[in-house]
Write a structure and sequence with these properties.
heterotrimer, A alpha/beta, B mainly alpha, C mainly alpha, A: alpha/beta, 5-stranded parallel β-sheet, globular, B: 10 helices, 0% strand
């Protein structure tokens, strides 16, 4: 399987935020994707596509360090990943500002104004997160990315339950992040209006006879 | 870390389940005891230290299954795992917050409930001291149990089965110290054992709990 | 040829198939000889009468209850350090055997205690410790059952086993501190003074050997079953994915 590079790999002056080599990922001991290689440079975004259950989420969790690769390597800078999945980790009993301030403190940052502004949350800042609509919650969850101050955003279907205006807002936030030298790895089905490379994971689906590493010993 | 601690405290306060529920449960257990063993004040005074310890232990257990489950369900645990905080620290901080919202009120309420159970006057100081020394261990051991069962649906009952045997040494030494003091004997030995167990648990358990949580997040 | 080669499931199955008939045979022989000798060819104790003969079940079962937990601790450590699947499965296989041994020890103890102490149960340190050990076994088994992914279950139960061991030992000393008991001293120890008399001692040793062999045979057998379960799972998974690939190809 051929490698994939978000940029021309030859340019040695490009700082890679993420580089993945011959990666295989799986869930519950069953391999889903294998032979993945790609790189992601600062200022670039990479969009992952593929049908449901193809292993996009697992790949993102592996890149974020939440689970171990079954084979191959993931190279990211230490403490550089900000991960956002379907669940936003919001506390209904806390206000929008308190939720953001908490995550800013956890990531050793301060100042949430930029994040509030980027997702148009300023009017809602004192509202309890439990009273927000699904789309507003989603925006708050994405605003969390801004307060982490981390360079590599790893996003799993970030636009679920966002309306068109909010999607545009999100696209703008990602563009701003890239403009500041950040990078983003995004699994999504819709067009974010980003100038991003696209990686379809379908060809990398693990071969049917590639046995799970953990169960191999039993055959 | 401090932010996490404060957040857990605020959540416990606002959700209403924290301070109030454990205390109310403790009160109810203590009130039910005379109904079940009879109103003889001599008998109640004799079993008071044990009943108070058992009530505190059960009240502590009651709120444990939400300790990590809430953060697990809303995805916050995943996000914390990718944050700069070590998971061992996350667990220790959450156990500390659990102690402040559950253990500490129990310690403070125990003397009042001791009056209800006709506890001997010389027993109050050591009862409070033994609870203050022992309940942090209960919270930390409980956090380990919560970490073990966090991925399991309806893991609450299983967690009780796993955690209660681990509570045995703490309960024995804690209740023994309180009993000895109430009977006018020297409680120093069990108190020292209790302090030793708590110190050991606080030192080692976060690592076991962190390892377990890492497995569960995989 | 290293011992670790038997950590390979297939090799292990081969070994256990060769060893198991011998284990079963020797276990049956030792238990038969030991129990018949103990029950029918030893004198009654001058104080305890014929009730003393339950010792031939009680002591070996109690011994194996502790040894089974110890074996689980060792194989759990092997799993954590070297990640051999056989060791994790052996721990899983040993737990129910251990819990049955604990139960036998508790029940025979109660049957023995009734005529001797006039009570079925007393909160004696040894009895209490065994009851706590029983609870530890139950929790351990319940955790295995509750978790679907076998590797996750193996990891979690190994750590529980380590932590549980520490707390079981702590509980043992705590319970000793808490109550001085009725139970007689050790039936077997290196200090000859404490031991039971020689007439009881030799058949008891034979029974112990029988219980050890029986335990080994059961663990081999159950581990083999667990390995076959995993093997079936792996084959089904492969089959399923093979079929999926064919559908896509067509």
């Amino acid at each position: 399987m051929g490698g994939f590079c978000a940029l021309s790999c030859s340019g040695s002056d490009i700082v890679m935020e993420l580089s993945v080599t011959d990666l295989a990922v799986g869930r519950g001991g069953i391999p889903l994707l294998a032979g993945l290689s790609f790189g992601l440079a600062r200022g670039r975004a990479l969009v992952l596509r593929g049908p449901n259950g193809s292993g996009k989420t697992t790949l993102l969790r592996t890149v974020a360090g939440l689970q171990l690769p079954m084979a191959g390597r993931v190279e990211v800078g230490e403490d550089s990943v900000a991960y956002a999945a379907h669940a936003d980790g919001l506390k209904a009993a806390l206000s929008v500002a308190e939720n953001l301030r908490f995550w800013a403190a956890v990531f050793g940052q301060s100042g949430i104004d930029a994040a509030l502004r980027a997702f148009d949350l300023e009017p809602l800042a004192e509202r309890r997160a439990g009273q927000l609509s699904a789309g507003q919650k989603r925006r708050l969850g994405l605003a969390r990315l801004v307060v982490t101050g981390r360079p590599l955003w790893v996003l799993d279907e970030p636009t679920v339950s966002l309306d068109a205006a909010s999607v545009a807002q999100f696209g703008a936030a990602v563009r701003a992040h890239l403009g500041h030298g950040g990078a983003a790895l995004i699994a999504t089905h819709i067009d974010l209006g980003l100038e991003a490379d696209v990686l379809d994971v379908t060809p990398y689906r693990a071969a049917a006879d590639a046995m799970a590493a953990t169960d191999e010993a039993f055959l | 870390m401090r932010a996490l601690f404060l957040r857990d405290l605020v959540l416990a306060l606002r959700a209403g389940g924290g301070f109030g529920l454990g205390l109310a449960f403790f009160l109810i257990v203590v009130v039910l005891v005379p109904f079940s063993v009879g109103p003889s004040s001599e008998l109640l005074g004799r079993i008071a230290p044990g009943v108070l310890w058992l009530g505190a232990l059960l009240a502590c257990l009651l709120s444990l299954d939400r300790l990590l489950a809430v953060d697990w369900e809303d995805g916050a645990l995943d996000l914390l795992a990718t944050s700069p905080l070590p998971l061992e620290g996350v667990i220790a901080v959450k156990a500390a917050a659990h102690w402040v919202t559950t253990g500490l009120p129990l310690v403070l309420a125990a003397p009042v409930l001791g009056v209800l159970l006709n506890l001997a006057p010389q027993g109050y100081g050591v009862l409070v001291l033994s609870l203050a020394l022992g309940t942090p261990a209960l919270s930390m051991i409980g956090a380990f149990g919560a970490a073990l069962t966090v991925g399991i649906k309806r893991g609450g009952l299983l967690m009780s089965l796993l955690v209660l045997p681990l509570y045995v040494p703490t309960l024995i030494f804690g209740a023994e110290a309180a009993r000895r003091a109430a009977e006018g004997q020297d409680p120093a030995t069990p108190l020292l054992f209790l302090a030793g167990i708590t110190a050991g648990v606080l030192a080692c358990m976060p690592f076991a709990a962190g390892a377990v949580l890492r497995v569960n997040l995989r | 040829m290293s011992l670790w080669e038997y950590a390979n499931p297939v090799k292990f199955l081969g070994l256990s198939e060769r060893v198991m008939p011998w284990l079963w045979g020797f276990a049956a022989a030792c238990l038969g000889v030991g129990l018949i000798w103990g029950f029918f060819f030893t004198p009654d104790d001058f104080r305890q009468g014929s009730t003393v003969k339950i010792i031939y079940l009680h002591v070996p079962a109690a011994f194996m209850a502790i040894q089974a937990w110890f074996m689980m601790l060792v194989v759990s450590l092997i799993w954590i350090i070297r990640r051999h699947h056989v060791s994790a499965l052996a721990a899983k296989a040993a737990a129910p055997v251990g819990v049955v041994m604990t139960l036998i020890a508790l029940v025979t103890g109660a049957i023995w205690g009734q005529p001797m102490w006039g009570t079925w149960w007393a909160w004696d340190p040894r009895l209490t410790s065994f009851l706590i050990l029983f609870l530890f076994y139950l929790g351990y088994i319940a955790l295995w059952e509750a978790i679907e992914d076998p590797d996750t279950a193996a990891d979690l139960t190994s750590i529980l086993c380590l932590v549980g061991t520490v707390f079981a030992v702590l509980s043992r000393y705590a319970v000793n501190f808490w109550n001085q008991g009725l139970h007689q001293g050790a039936s077997l120890s290196l200090d000859k003074e404490e031991n039971v008399a020689d007439v009881f001692y030799i058949p008891l040793l034979v029974c112990m050997a029988g219980f050890v062999l029986l335990f080994l045979a059961l663990v081999f057998y159950r581990t083999g079953t667990e390995i076959r379960v995993r093997r079936t799972r792996a084959l089904i998974a492969r089959e399923g994915r093979g079929a999926a690939a064919q559908v896509e190809g067509a």
